[in-house]
Specification:
binds adenosine-5'-triphosphate; Beta-Lactamase; Heat Shock Protein 90; about 45% helix; Rossmann fold; binds magnesium ion; alpha/beta; 4 domains; rod-shaped
Length: about 650
């Protein structure tokens, strides 16, 4: 049931009171009357009124005081003053004091009714307004909360492109104070190189011809982001969706542009992953290619190396060919270095993995480098209790040398080279930026004070064959192979550079749980061996040169040109054969299968695996099955001899047992 409007009539003339009451009661109002100020006060004690009609002149009360009392008790009550006074001043005085309106005696019933109804209507409208405002406020606060809890930057611009609103995501994403951005132009946060593009879309939107969706732009984050975020995140790539705001329908040609509002989504992670993926695919393709080339090339080099070694053996130092033969060996070595770089980014091209103290490798390598570069000052800072890492030491040395050499080339006039090793525990956020799993890593940082790298170049430095050096001065393989090697070790390389200031390369290698094993000592070059070697290789030149070398070393040699032949020979001469030198990649029965078949004939057979290159993990897999050693072609007579003695004189311990090679 709707409540009836309540009306109070205060007049000291009872007749007046009564007639007013009767008149108003007709209108469905609940009417109360008071014939004196005292009576009115009593009624007002426990009742609320919408309208009070108050006679200003009463014997016991001043009308003004009563009006004050009513206003004080309930400011919502509209007071209509009834007066006999005809002066305008009186009326104005009453209104100033808070009266809603006034009626001068004598008045018509219609006049009374109209005034009362008017007061009630105003009241109703006021209530309705309050309700609408409350609803609006609630709805605004709800949308406000939605906007503020969005991970995207939501903003509004005025017609000149200045921010009128920007959500708090900007504080997290760009480390900027949102209040500082209000009234500033959107260019404040747009990457310099993207400003033209941003302007184009802003203007485009202004004419209303095309909607702006899926536009990629780079935003700049404030310096404050530099410390908390990775050095790689200096800007943020966003995808923009924005809409123009007009004073009337977009189709109306006379519409006025008021500004735009839009949403900017951070897609930096997606972009980074896309780049990583593209890079990984490229490296994989090049890796496959490089592996193939390295394999054939190393066999060729092996042949040249072998014959040169044999000739050297028979040539006196004074002989005119002696020097030339030495040069051939040196050139073969250079060729081998080149294929070694290629193998760096060949897929899974790591073989000789040991638990290692990176401080030692880094120290040795930087000393070696330092000897050749006197104009460079070297600073070293080593983590004391550095965690061990599982690495191919030769490859890691290669990575460091490549980085040192680059640093040297960037500081031709001299400078500082700083090496820092550190144990780091990467949390989820840092690991994600680097494309690694959160875990413990050993970080080796190499900084130079050289020329630095421009952003555009920086994006390409890990590409194979990318070089900024003059023709003939760089192959562009240094960093590509370093990157490949570190990736093969489940780590990564990051780079931070400032043009004119210098460059820092950070190498991350996963820390290992294993302890560090002591190195075995080298075995000498021995001419008096009388043991028998079965040499297995599908390349004729390798068989020829290999058997000559082995004979020179004093071994008796049996050769096999295929896995099947090797098996036949082994089954006949198993008791005479002391060691098998087995090529890994052969047509038909490959190294792995041959190894297994020979092992089936004699469980403790000694095998030295040799290869120019292995396809994915095959070398590791064979080594895991108990094979004692691996030698990379092309090898010198000295290293071949050492490897053979290492296995023949060593206990029959497999090179790896339960190791975690891939
Ligand atoms: N420390 C550095 N300072 C400045 N630029 C560097 C630095 N390291 C690498 N670069 C840039 O990266 C490019 C690629 O390096 P990378 O080692 O892969 O090839 P390269 O040095 O040009 O040739 P290579 O190492 O095969 O002889 C270089 O040409 C050079 O522009
Ligand atoms: Mg280089």
């Amino acid at each position: 049931m709707a409540f009836l409007p309540k009306i109070l009539i205060v007049d000291d003339e009872p007749k007046m009171c009564e007639s007013l009451r009767m008149l108003l009661a007709v209108k469905d109002y609940e009417v109360y009357t008071a014939a004196s100020g005292a009576e009115a006060r009593a009624i007002l004690q426990d009742r609320h009124f919408d309208v009070a009609l108050v006679d200003m002149v009463m014997p016991d009360t001043d009308g003004h005081q009563l009006m004050d009392l009513i206003n004080q008790k309930d400011p919502d009550t509209d007071v209509i003053v009834i007066t006999g006074d005809t002066s305008l001043e009186f009326a104005i005085g009453a209104l100033k004091r808070g009266a809603y309106d006034y009626l001068r005696k004598p008045f018509e019933f219609e006049e009374l009714l109209a005034t009362v109804e008017n007061a009630l209507e105003q009241k109703r409208l006021k209530k309705e307004n309050e309700l609408i405002n409350a609803k609006l406020e609630w709805s605004e606060s709800r949308y406000g909360r939605l906007v503020e809890s969005s991970p995207d930057i939501i903003y509004a611009l005025d017609e000149a492109g200045n921010f009128t609103f920007i959500s708090n995501a900007v504080e997290r994403l760009l480390c900027m104070n949102r209040e500082d951005l209000i009234s500033r132009h959107y260019n404040t946060i747009i990457h310099e190189e993207d400003r033209e593009k941003a302007k184009w879309f802003f203007n485009e939107r202004r004419t209303g011809e095309r909607s702006t969706t899926g536009v990629e732009l780079r935003l700049i984050s404030s310096e404050a982001c530099g410390e908390s975020k990775s050095f790689e995140v200096r800007h943020l790539t966003i995808e923009l969706k924005s809409t123009g705001v007009y004073d009337r329908d977009v189709a109306d040609s006379s519409k006025k542009f008021l500004g735009t509002y839009g949403v900017a989504r951070d897609i930096s992670d997606r972009k980074r992953l896309e780049t990583q993926l593209r890079h990984a695919q490229k490296m994989e393709a090049v890796g496959t290619l490089a592996g193939g080339i390295a394999h054939d090339f190393n066999n060729l080099l092996m042949g040249i190396q072998g014959y040169a070694s044999l000739m050297l053996l028979k040539t006196d130092r004074g002989h005119p060919h002696h020097k030339n033969l030495n040069s051939i060996e040196q050139l073969v070595q250079n060729g081998a270095d080149l294929t070694k770089q290629l193998l760096g980014f060949a897929r899974d091209g790591k073989y000789d993995v040991k638990s290692t103290n990176m401080n030692e490798i880094a120290r040795d390598t930087i000393r070696m480098f330092g000897r050749t570069k006197k104009e460079i000052s070297i600073y070293e800072e080593y983590e004391e209790a550095i965690w061990p890492v599982e690495v191919d030491q030769g490859q890691l040395q290669q990575v460091l040398l490549n980085i040192f050499v680059n640093a040297g080339q960037a500081m031709l006039g001299g400078g500082d080279l700083t090496l820092v090793t550190k144990n780091v525990n990467l949390g989820a956020q840092d690991a994600r930026v680097l494309g690694l799993q959160p875990a413990k890593y050993v970080r080796i940082s190499v900084s130079d004070t050289g020329v630095g790298i421009e952003e555009e170049t920086r994006q390409r430095i890990f590409e194979p064959f990318f070089t900024t050096k003059e023709f003939g001065h760089g192959t562009g393989l240094g960093l590509a192979s370093a990157y490949g090697i570190i990736q093969n070790h489940q780590g990564t390389i990051a780079v931070d550079s400032q043009v004119g200031q210098g460059t820092t390369f950070h190498i991350y290698l996963p820390a290992s749980e294993k302890g560090i094993k002591d190195e075995k000592l080298f075995f000498g070059y021995d001419h008096n061996d009388t043991q028998t070697v079965l040499l297995v290789d599908d390349e004729d030149v390798i068989l020829k040169v290999g058997s000559q070398i082995l004979q020179e070393l004093g071994y008796t040699v049996l050769t096999a040109g295929s896995g099947r032949e090797a098996l036949e020979i082994y089954s006949t001469y198993r008791d005479e054969i002391d060691i098998v030198v087995l090529d890994m990649i052969m047509p038909g029965m490959g190294g792995g299968e041959t190894y297994d078949s020979i092992k089936a004939l004699k469980l403790d057979v000694k095998v030295l695996l040799s290869s120019g290159y292995s396809i994915i993990g095959e070398a590791s897999a064979i080594l895991n099955r108990g094979c004692q050693g691996f030698i990379q072609k092309p090898f010198t007579m000295k290293s071949f001899s050492e490897k053979l003695r290492e296995i023949l004189d060593g206990e029959n311990t497999p090179m790896y047992q339960n190791s975690q090679l891939h």
